[in-house]
Request: fold
Amino acid sequence: MAQQKISAPKGVSEYTPPRSSSFEFVRESLIAPARNAGYQLIELPVFEDTDLFKRGVGESTDVVSKEMYTFEDRGGRSITLRPEGTAGVMRSVIEHGLDRGQLPVKVWYSGQFFRAERPQAGRYRQFYQVGIEAIGLDDPAIDAEVIAIADAGFKALGLTQYRLEITSLGDAQSRAAHRVDLLKFIATLDLDEATAQRAAINPLRLFDDKREEMKKAMADAPLLINYLSDSSRAHFDQVIGYLDALKVSYTLNPRMVRGLDYYTGTTFEFVHELLGAQSGIGGGGRYDGLMEQLGGQSLSGIGFGLGVDRALLAAEAEGVIGDDAFVSDLFIIPLGENAKTHALTIAASLRANGKKVEIAFGDRALKGAMKGADKSGAMHVVVLGDAEISSGTALLKEMKSGVETSVKIDSLFEALEK
Ligand code: HAM
Reply:
């Protein structure tokens, strides 16, 4: 009896050929500017102690309270699949004492993240991010550089129809002053119990409420940007000044609320205009209390996470990404057992010299193998039979023009270079 097929779990993103080439191109383009700026790879586990996210990301967030994949492992420990990257980086930096060396610690990462959200276009339960973190300096120039690196990644991809939104959440003093007035304002609203509870943990969350009546109710709420302390104001003004010098355009959005609780000071989001409801293609900001919160020393930090899945959707929507599938320099069609051995050794040597080479396996008839070569989009084809092997020469066909040239098998590399 035929076995039942198994499908992927609901809401995960996966990339199969040929679209996987576009995905790879997007991921590499997004991270290239960070590598050029001296960020180094940090490779971390995809699961961590659940407390890391509870303490690091914050219990008032949807991410922690509703969306974590948490389970008990065989040793009875509570484990969570990472919903984001910053907390894990901080854990690792503290654990390995990287903050005792040269500052700032500058790292980049790339990989899968997990949030049990309701799946829809551009919102997945397993998704991909590339990100960077710069830990240990609170120089406003670093804020601007980090933002400019993210912007350069989107530009490298060819995206134009997006905007950068930016604001400052200030320091503890700014937020305390704002919180007093915000709580007074919220006390005048008629809130349901769940909303009141959220507001009690983090009143800023009410700015993020998508319901029309809440948006209206919050229209006159006091804005944090008007409560910045002198030093927070000066820091933010400098960040803006550097962005102007870098010609990175931005829109001020004092109502921005990030989905994670660790943010302080400069915060930002990249929003794409063609993506509908899931338009956030990247975001980040400062998290000046996070290291201490996780048991480390008191050092500041800033970083970003860019959504690779959404950046790919954005690139496709803007039509800036082609079908960038693998195309070989040479397609070898061996005829017979002896030729197959030769094809294997010729291909291995050409590949060692940087050529992309495919072989038609499976002992197909010449006509079928030629069709396969044509379909693959290969630049050249060579047919190897016993006659070619004994004479040491073969016909190299350039697929585009159909022109065939007789070449020495030993000189295939040079012939492909022409
Ligand atoms: P985040 O804004 O939660 O920030 O996520 C960053 C990006 O990941 C989003 O802008 C979005 O493009 C993508 N993303 C998030 N959730 C999903 C999902 N369910 N499906 C598809 N894409 C998604 C962070 O995660 C912070 N750790 C960024 C950061 C680094 N802040 C400072 N350093």
Remarks:
- Residues 84-86, 115, 117, 123-124, 127, 129, 131, 133, 259-260, 280-285, 303-305, 307, 309-310 surround histidyl-adenosine monophosphate (CB under 6 Å).
- Residues 182 and 222 are 6 Å apart (CA to CA).
- The mean pLDDT is 95.
